[in-house]
Amino acid sequence: MSLIPKKGNVYVVDDDEAVRDSLQWLLEGKDYRVRCFESAEAFLSRYDAREVACLIADIRMGGMTGMELQEKLIERQSPLPIVFITGHGDVPMAVESMKKRRAGLHPETLQGRPVGGPGGTHAGNGQGRLRHTPASRQPGRPALQ
Known about the structure:
alpha/beta; five-stranded parallel beta sheet; two-stranded antiparallel ribbon; disordered C terminus
């Protein structure tokens, strides 16, 4: 058992057990506390808005989708930052999520090919990543305090 304090709390919501296990292994290896949930509904039933954390959620899941989960959190006025992961993402989906809440989408693939990999699809900034300008740097938007 390590005496070094953990860096922070991360919720992982994905209906694929292998993805949950992999993310938990990766994040715990970097000293984060990780809580995994098999569905958006399971996460919402146990989510405590007083806990400082971030959320990694799959876009497409059985039952409630990641985008629907985002809507529920917005309705609850949750400050929880969300990182979406998906094997089915596209640029319009990323734009929709960012418009709703300054969130990012990290696609595992676009058009069936790895983003940024050999022969991969390059979206956004030409480097295989979808680029996002924080609201504090967008013209006409107030800076976050």
